From TrEMBL:
InterPro entries, A to Z: Globin, Globin-like_sf, Globin/Proto
Alphabetical list of PANTHER family matching this protein: FLAVOHEMOPROTEIN
Species this chain originates from: Bradyrhizobium denitrificans
Organism superkingdom: Bacteria
CDD domains with a match to the protein in the record: HGbI-like
Keywords: Heme, Iron, Metal-binding, Oxygen transport, Transport
Residue intervals of the Globin domain: 1-135
Homology family: Belongs to the globin family.
TM regions (residue ranges): none
Name of the protein in its database record: Globin
Amino acid sequence: MLTAEEIACVRSSFDMVFANATDMTTTFYQRLFELAPECRSMFPDNMDVLKRDFIATLAVLVGSLDRMTGLLSSTDILGRNHARYGVRPEHYPLVGEALLWSLAKGLGPQWTAEVEQAWRKVYEIISQRMIAISAGPRLP
Ligand code: HEM
C-alpha cells in the first residue's frame, strides 16, 4: 500500500515535528477548532493530556507503517474508541486537514509536495480503517 520511500518520508518528517511536539499538537487542535468549532465540546477543557496521547499514538502509528498488521490493530482500537466518543465519519477529513496544517507549520520549507502526498496517503489509510471499524458491530 505504501512504498518504502513514502514510509521513509513520513518518518523523517515526523521526527522533525516530534522534536517540537507541544507546538505541533497545539497548532493541530487550534486549527481543528477553527475548522470545526462545533467539535470543541467533544473534548476536555484541559487538552494537555490529550495532546501528549495524540502525539504518542501518532508516533506508534508512524512506527508501524511497515508492519500493516500492527498498524491495523492499533487503528482498530482507536476506531472503536472514537466511535464511543461520538466521532462520525464526516469528522475525519477535518482532523486530516488540521493534521496536515500542523505538519506544514512545523516543517516550514521541509513541507514539500512529496511529504504532503505521503502524509495524505497515510492519513487516508488510518482514517478509512478507523471509519470502517467504527461502522462494525459494537463491542462491549
Ligand atoms: C488519525 C486520527 C486520530 C488519531 C491518531 C487520534 C488519536 C486520539 C487519541 C490517542 C486519543 C486518546 C484516547 C484514545 O487513545 O482513544 C483520542 C481521543 C479523542 N479523539 Fe482522536 N484521534 C484521531 C481522530 C479523531 C477524530 C477524527 C476526531 C473527531 C473530532 C477525534 C476526536 C477525539 C475525541 C473527542 C477524543 C476523546 C477526548 C477525551 O474525552 O479525552 N479524534 N484521539
